[in-house]
From TrEMBL:
The lineage of its organism: Bacteria, Bacillati, Actinomycetota, Actinomycetes, Micromonosporales. SUPFAM superfamilies: Aldolase (SSF51569). The keyword Amino-acid biosynthesis applies. Its EC number is 2.5.1.54. It catalyses: D-erythrose 4-phosphate + phosphoenolpyruvate + H2O = 7-phospho-2-dehydro-3-deoxy-D-arabino-heptonate + phosphate. Pathway: Metabolic intermediate biosynthesis; chorismate biosynthesis; chorismate from D-erythrose 4-phosphate and phosphoenolpyruvate: step 1/7. It is an enzyme of class 2 (transferase). This is Phospho-2-dehydro-3-deoxyheptonate aldolase. It comes from Plantactinospora mayteni.
Length: 364
């Protein structure tokens, strides 16, 4: 086909094409040095040990719904580092550092896609801002967790990540299951927005085996990926259709589904989203119920997720007025003082569980 012919049939709805920096160039500009690389590997190993119950602490993935202000996120990380050290005997704290915001319809899609918060879509600047923040958080001594939405993005940032997630809207996607099978860190699979847990169980099974699929390599060139499968995938319960699934009955049912699929019986409970009725103030209520289950000896619960930031609640992204520092522009979050209280409750539940169900006992 001639160039003229191609012009008539291709890119009819593309406004413009901007060159994308390569992963290799970004890694060169913002390198993961040897001490930080060792910290990432230690973080991944620690998460896997908690998932496998070789470590009886509780995994706690906590942080803003989606980072929009790297300075405020780093401020949060400094406070989180202190709390993580205080509870290190009972909790393995991983900072939630999410840069891609899946949308049901439309809205701000995250720091990588739109770092200027203005619709300008400077993805190259967003990738640099994201990687720079991840390195800063690692320098503080905190492992980081990210949700992977775009299948190209991991080449730019995944080397810094200790724990990853596939969200409720993408857990059924073959692309994301294949991606998870090749990622180097444990991956949490969330149940679907309609509450389907079986779909996430299927995703864990699919990501646990080898796959072959097209992608890009570190130089940004098209490549065929041959994966080995990811044995560290696990189930995340986040409720669905306005109904929670963190209660003891739901936990038992989910563990039964994992057992029937011959998968490890381990759950992370997301205290936000439909489990809290999308009310950030109810996250401690969810945690209190989970803590009671743990204190009663439930060992199938290996982790908790929290949406938390410096200032409670959320705010709209409004170009006519300045944003409040440290408050989410996506989902509403717990404030910092309430987050510290939740840490104390979870740590106490871990200690109680050690008495009620010592390591090596059957699941509750």
């Amino acid at each position: 086909m001639t160039t003229t012919g191609m012009g008539r049939v291709s890119d009819q709805r593309i406004d413009r094409i901007v060159p994308l920096t390569t992963p290799a160039l970004l890694h060169h500009e913002l390198p993961l040095d040897e001490p930080l690389a060792s910290a990432v590997l230690d973080g991944r190993r620690s998460v896997a040990q908690v998932l496998d119950r070789e470590d009886d602490r509780l995994l706690v993935v906590v942080g803003p719904c989606s980072v929009h202000d790297p300075a405020a996120a780093l401020d949060y990380a400094r406070r989180l580092r202190v709390a993580a050290a205080e509870h290190a005997d009972d909790l393995l704290v991983v900072m939630r550092v999410y840069f891609e915001k899946p949308r049901s319809t439309v809205g701000w899609k995250g720091l990588i896609n739109d770092p200027g918060l203005d619709g300008s879509g400077d993805v190259n600047a967003g990738l640099r801002a994201a990687r720079a923040l991840l390195l800063d958080v690692l320098r503080l001594g905190l492992p980081v967790g990210c949700e992977f939405l775009d299948p190209i993005t991991p080449q730019y940032i995944a080397d810094t990540v200790a724990w990853g997630a596939i969200g409720a809207r993408t857990v059924e996607s073959q692309v994301h299951r294949q991606l998870s099978s090749g990622l180097s860190m444990p991956i949490g699979m969330k149940n679907r927005p309609d509450g389907s847990v079986g779909t996430a169980v299927d995703a864990i099974r699919a990501a646990g085996v080898p796959h072959v699929f097209p992608g890009i390599d570190i130089s940004g060139a098209p490549a065929i990926m041959h994966t080995r499968g990811n044995a560290d995938c696990h189930l995340v319960l986040r409720g669905g259709r306005g109904e929670p699934n963190y209660d003891a009955e739901s936990v038992a049912e989910s563990l039964s589904l994992l057992r029937a699929a011959t998968l490890p019986e381990r759950l992370v409970i997301d205290a936000s989203h439909d489990n809290s009725g999308k009310d950030h103030r109810r996250q401690p209520v969810v945690v209190a119920d989970v803590a009671r289950q743990m204190a009663d000896g439930q060992r199938g619960i290996v982790g908790v997720m929290l949406e938390s930031f410096l200032v409670p609640g959320r705010q709209d992204l409004d170009p006519t007025r300045p944003l409040e520092y440290g408050q989410s522009i996506t989902d509403a979050c717990l404030g910092w003082p309430e987050t510290e209280e939740v840490f104390a409750d979870l740590a106490a539940a871990v200690r109680a569980r050690r008495v009620a169900a010592p390591a090596g006992t059957a699941l509750g």
